[in-house]
Amino acid sequence: MQYSNPRDEAIDAKALETLANVYGERATKLPPVALVIAAYNEEGAVGPVVESLPRTVCGLQAEVIVVADGCVDATAKEADAAGAVVCDCEVNRGQGAALRLGYRIAREGGAQYIATTDADGQYNPADIADMVQPLIDGKADFVTGSRRLGSQETNDPIRTAGSIFFAKLASLLTGQRITDTSFGMRAMKAEVTGAVQLEQPQYQSSELLIGVITHGYRVLEVPATIHKRTVGESKKGSNPLYHLHIPGLNNVFYGFRFMRVVVGTWWRESRRRHRPS
Questions:
Q1: How far apart are alpha carbons 176 and 268 in whole angstroms?
Q2: Which of 105, 119, 102, 89 is nearest to 30 (CA)?
Q3: 18 burial via Cβ count (<10 Å: 0-12, 13-18, 19+)
Q4: CA distance 256 to 207
Q5: How many CB atoms lie within 10 A of CB 172?
Q6: 194: phi > 0 → left, psi -120 to 50 → alpha, else beta; which?
Q7: Following DSSP, what letter does each residue of 84-107 receive, concatenated?
Q8: How many CB atoms lie within 10 A of CB 268?
Q9: What is the CA radius of gyration of the chain?
Q10: Model-level pTM?
Q11: Fewer Cβ within 10 Å of end Cβ, the chain: N or C?
């Protein structure tokens, strides 16, 4: 895995050392499927999510890996008690950095397939099998859920319009039809996570999706469901004026940052793929 920031490499190395000391071979010799969750201050939510996840997916044994991203509450302890392998990272760096570390744990631990979900309980665990099966069948290298093809309980018209716009933009840039660029539940062959450069602390789902398409991996979307968050509050898309609750302002900041990630990732990965070796 490539690191653009030596600080990130040092933080990950320390977290991995602690993980190996605490869990031993349970963390270093993983079953075929790794279910990865990035969690930041999700006490009260992460435990039920871990308990709801299947330990067998499409007939293959699965292990749950939770990366506690600099949490200051009992997230790590709760996830461990629920049965997960927990990598307790001391520094909060964002969901993207936490998932990148989770992918590394899964890949280096020998997992063949990696699936991700969020710690807030918005995604349906039953959808995981529908994403892993095409990988096993050799029909795809990367499978992502789509609320456009499935369903969602949230109904923010601005977010919905933005989601449609960014899907069309990503489709135009990559040449592949995409209906949902920001769905948090996805599955992939483990080696895919080592081929794409992952830099974003947030909005990492679009960075990964566009990266794998740009590198020529076979990508498939399947119908999936996203529910309303019932515990805690969203940690993404905020801005310096977030707590003033000015209507629409947070969506403007979110859209601008998301646009930058979508276009920037496409440009960066296109250049990396075609760069002479």
A1: 18
A2: 105
A3: middle
A4: 15
A5: 11
A6: alpha
A7: -EEEEESS---HHHHHHHHHHHHH
A8: 16
A9: 18
A10: 0.88
A11: C
Amino acid, single-letter form, for residue 239: N
Q: Please name the helix (run of DSSP H) or strand (run of DSSP E) that holds residue 217, with its range, or none.
A: none
The DSSP-derived string for 116-140 is E--TTS-B-TTHHHHHHHHHHTTS-
- Structure tokens belonging to residue 257: 């940052």
For the purposes of burial, counting CB atoms within 10 Å of the CB of 160, is it exposed (0-12), middle (13-18) or buried (19 or more)? Answer: middle
Identify which of 109, 85, 119 has the alpha carbon closest to the alpha carbon of residue 190. Answer: 109
